[in-house]
Amino acid sequence: MKTIHWGIIGGGSVCERKSGPAFYKIEHSSLAAVMSRNAGKARDFALRHQVPACYTDADSLIYDADIDAVYVATPPDSHKEYTIRALRAGKPVYVEKPMAMNYQECAEMIKASQESGQKLFVAYYRRALPYFLKVKELLQENAIGNVLSAGIKYFRPPLASDFTAETHTWRVKQSVAGEGYFYDLAPHTLDILDFLLGEISEAKGFSYNAGHLYEVKDTVTAILRFRSGVTGVGQWCFVTSGKSTEDSVVITGDKGELRFNTFAFQPIRLRAVNREEEFAISPPEHIQQPLIQTIVDELRGTGSCPSTGISGARASRVMDMILK
Prior knowledge:
By secondary structure, the chain is α/β, with parallel strands linked by helices. The protein has 2 domains: 4-125 and 287-303, Rossmann fold, CATH 3.40.50.720; 130-282, 2-Layer Sandwich (Dihydrodipicolinate Reductase, domain 2), CATH 3.30.360.10. The chain is 33% helix and 25% strand. The protein contains 11 helices and 14 strands. The strands form 2 sheets. An 8-stranded mixed sheet has the order 8-9-10-7-11-12-13-14, covered by helices on one side. A hairpin with a 4-residue loop joins strand 9 (219-226) and strand 10. Helix 5 runs parallel beside helix 6 (103-116), helix 6 runs antiparallel to helix 11 and helix 9 (180-197) crosses helix 11. The chain is globular, with a radius of gyration of 20 Å.
């Protein structure tokens, strides 16, 4: 049976545990090459993960005849460029989230996928995690009846690196990552709600820079409307006190509610008219592994991946509407 040989563009921190090891641990998959513009980092990653080849030039990896598929794991400002180059070279692509800097870039990536005939996948890996599949199962069995609304809260205090420009991460640099932590973290929640409740058709938002720690917005409130008619409210703030820390999603139905987290993986809480239960489901060691397995299965013709370029672009479209 065919093994999918992967090449990684950008061997940064996300590749160390979340994704990188999955490529060589799952069935019918191997990690054949890594590329970083920093030669030392590329060699170090290759040595520690036993990767046969390392490059400092993206095209050398993309056009390596031994590479079947490309994983783009760079900051968002280069997602479109590397993805389109790989697709046009005849390689399917798995790209990190957010898919690109805005919806227009996502649309260009989808067009390149369609024109090249190559598949495009996005790292919204929660769609394949048992924790969120349990939430979906409970919704499908009508555990809370007809869904009425969804509420999102994600509040946290500033990171130590946020207080001086010299220590700012690329995630709060608008030209590299879009609108900061909102753009980095909120799409995970927006995408999983798309997966659970269907497409978000309308969104409006208010945002501002409350803490003045960096150039991007740190506080966002959004109103959402799903194509089904369900409505929702989302609140994100990255400059609260530690006392206000919260990571919650609440889906309310006419017979009860489901409460869970986007990031904390605390037990899922079901409170319904005649039923109260909790479901403790921990994430896997390599959190992207279940989704990567579905990608390998689809590329081999034995399964399908739930996170495509088309679904991934919807999260960027919603963020564009919120930040408009």
